[in-house]
């Protein structure tokens, strides 16, 4: 099966590691993700704070570019997923804003009829690719385990995967990441703040507030005795890393590795950390930290 | 906490109607003042006017106070209030609407500068079609948080060395069509 892929701007910049892991994992799974030709920024939470028509038009341009192919559009970024879904709903509902979107698109020679399906990567992995298929690729799970077997992984959803839209997911107690973690032979660490906000762009505009919000999440994952935190959002991953890099409380040996969902899956599949972009983590030595944890926690699994 | 009372003559009676007339404001009249929004808002403890109070102020016709409030600028778009509101008010969308209105009417509080971040973000996207985080952060921080920018150098250097901050912006290829779409969108009124 072939799908269209909408990486989003962060995956070309601050989250290049996430991007590299998506392409490594999907090429190993044998699933074609074809990048949407000439995509543009979804507008995120910023453009809509300046100009709503522009925000919806920007998002809709991508939907229009995807429509003729008839393929589903998959994005690894919750914010892109949210904005594209929002624009999709506006067009489907009709009304003044929908007409304005069509008018603006027409100025650039595009039309959009509201038929593009947009999916977020996590839900896509669980419902379209399937947990069983991923399990088949997890290296030697039955016999000697993989680098993640037995480790406690905290599934950090953040906001925009589950709010305000939670198609194909439980909005209040999402489980898709837990399913993936368990498929890899790791243990999902339940923690209180799994759908709390990392602070988003407040990390830039109100640094102290942003740091506090991200630290609260880190504290909650530590209370849950998590070895690793996994995120499916470029900004969550960045903020949790920044909060540790900038904060002496978390400096040194206590730094938690923050992985993207596909970095986690890729590690369990036996893909080399470098191919998964782990060297692009702000916290240095993530791959080594995880291997060391594995050696300490599950000597039996490594030794057979 | 500042005590704010507006007497009848001082209230802007049209303000509630204005907000209710917005596409996202249709349910604002159903607000029960239950406080679920303030209880779920992750930044509410830091706010002088948590979301519930903002809605009470909208109803009281406190135009200047609402549009001049810091609250919308502290909203991180987590949508916690939106999904929990028993009156199904699209609170996050109303916060966006208040941000846009505050800028248009020149009422942004001097305590906030998030609007400048959003402005730079929008300018970069209009120009290139895609975001470049380096340009965004440099342009925003240089003018608004110069000291912070200097203090962030270690993080910046680290991110530069791992290749996650890039100097060259990524651009859309079909610039001509993209520009026409953006110009048209900018010409349309909300």
Helices and strands, with pairings:
The complex is a heterodimer of chains A (304) and B (190).
Chain A: E1 2-5, H1 16-29, E2 32-35, H2 44-47, H3 52-66, E3 73-75, H4 78-93, H5 96-107, E4 118-120, H6 121-137, E5 152-156, H7 176-183, E6 187-188, H8 202-205, H9 207-223, E7 228-231, H10 234-245, E8 258-260, H11 261-268, H12 286-297, H13 299-303
Parallel strand pairs in A: 1-2, 1-3, 3-4, 5-6, 5-7, 7-8
Helix pairs in contact in A: 1-11, 3-4, 3-5, 4-5, 6-7, 9-10
Chain B: H1 14-20, H2 36-40, H3 51-59, H4 63-67, H5 71-74, H6 80-84, H7 91-104, H8 114-128, H9 133-144, H10 146-151, H11 153-161, H12 175-187
Helix pairs in contact in B: 8-9
Question: Could you please describe the fold and organization of this structure?
Answer:
With 304 residues, chain A is α/β, with parallel strands linked by helices. Chain A has 2 domains: 2-120, Glutathione S-transferase Yfyf (Class Pi), Chain A, domain 2, CATH 1.20.1050; 131-303, Rossmann fold, CATH 3.40.50.11810. Helix content of chain A is 47%, strand content 9%. In chain A, strands 2-1-3-4 form a 4-stranded parallel beta sheet, with helices on both faces. In chain A, helix 1 packs across helix 11 (261-268) and helix 6 packs parallel to helix 7. Chain A starts with a strand and ends with a helix. The model of chain A has no long low-confidence stretch (mean pLDDT 93). Chain B has 190 residues and is an all-alpha fold. Chain B folds into 2 domains: 8-104, Fumarate Reductase Iron-sulfur Protein, Chain B, domain 2, CATH 1.10.1060; 114-187, no CATH class. Helix content of chain B is 55%, strand content 0%. Chain B contains 12 helices and no strands. Chain B has helices at residues 14-20, 36-40, 51-59, 63-67, 71-74, 80-84, 91-104, 114-128, 133-144, 146-151, 153-161, 175-187. The two termini of chain B are 35 Å apart. In chain B, 41% of the residues are buried. The model of chain B has no long low-confidence stretch (mean pLDDT 95). Chains A and B meet through helix 2, helix 3, helix 5, helix 8 and helix 9 of A and helix 6, helix 7, helix 8, helix 9 and helix 11 of B.
């Amino acid at each position: 099966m072939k799908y269209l892929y909408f990486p989003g701007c962060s995956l070309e910049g601050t989250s290049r590691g996430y991007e590299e892991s998506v392409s490594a994992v999907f090429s190993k799974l044998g699933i074609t993700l074809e990048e949407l030709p000439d995509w543009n920024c979804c507008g995120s939470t910023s453009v809509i704070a300046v100009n709503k028509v522009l925000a919806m038009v920007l998002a809709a341009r991508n939907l229009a570019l995807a429509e003729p192919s008839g393929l589903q559009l998959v994005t690894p970024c919750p914010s892109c997923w949210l904005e594209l879904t929002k624009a999709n709903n506006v067009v489907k509902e009709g009304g003044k804003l929908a007409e304005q979107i069509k008018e603006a698109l027409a100025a650039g020679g595009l039309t959009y009829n509201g038929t593009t399906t947009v999916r977020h990567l996590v839900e896509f992995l669980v419902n379209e690719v399937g947990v069983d298929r991923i399990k088949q690729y997890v290296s030697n799970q039955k016999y000697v385990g993989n680098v993640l077997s037995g480790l406690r992984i905290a599934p950090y959803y953040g906001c925009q995967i589950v709010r305000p839209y939670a198609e194909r997911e439980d909005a209040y107690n999402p489980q898709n990441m837990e399913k993936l973690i368990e498929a890899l032979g790791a243990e999902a660490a339940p923690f209180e703040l799994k759908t709390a906000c990392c602070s988003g762009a407040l990390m830039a505009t109100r640094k102290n507030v942003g740091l506090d919000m991200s630290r609260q999440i880190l504290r909650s994952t530590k209370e849950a005795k998590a070895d690793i935190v996994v995120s499916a959002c470029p900004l969550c991953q960045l903020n949790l890393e920044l909060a540790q890099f900038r904060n002496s409380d978390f400096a040194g040996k206590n730094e938690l590795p923050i992985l993207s969902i596909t970095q986690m899956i890729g590690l369990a599949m036996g893909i080399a950390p470098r191919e998964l972009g782990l060297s692009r983590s702000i916290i240095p030595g993530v791959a080594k930290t995880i291997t060391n944890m594995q050696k300490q926690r599950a000597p039996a699994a490594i030794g057979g | 906490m500042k005590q704010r009372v507006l007497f009848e003559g001082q209230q802007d009676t049209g303000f509630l109607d204005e907000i209710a007339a917005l596409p996202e404001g249709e349910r604002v009249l159903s607000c029960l003042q239950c406080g679920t929004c303030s209880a779920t808002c992750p930044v509410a403890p830091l706010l002088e006017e948590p979301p519930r109070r903002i809605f009470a102020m909208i109803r009281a016709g406190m135009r200047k106070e609402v549009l001049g409030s810091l609250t919308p600028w502290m909203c991180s778009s987590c949508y916690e209030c939106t999904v929990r509101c028993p009156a199904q008010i699209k609170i996050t969308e109303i916060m966006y609407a208040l941000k846009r209105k505050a800028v248009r009417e020149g009422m942004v509080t001097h305590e906030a500068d998030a609007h400048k971040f959003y402005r730079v973000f929008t300018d970069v996207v209009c120009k290139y079609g895609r975001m470049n985080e380096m340009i965004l952060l440099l342009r925003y921080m240089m003018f608004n948080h110069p000291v912070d920018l200097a203090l962030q150098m270690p993080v910046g250097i680290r991110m530069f060395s791992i290749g996650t901050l890039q100097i060259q912006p990524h651009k859309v290829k079909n610039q001509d069509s993209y520009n026409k779409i953006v110009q048209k969108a900018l010409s349309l009124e909300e």
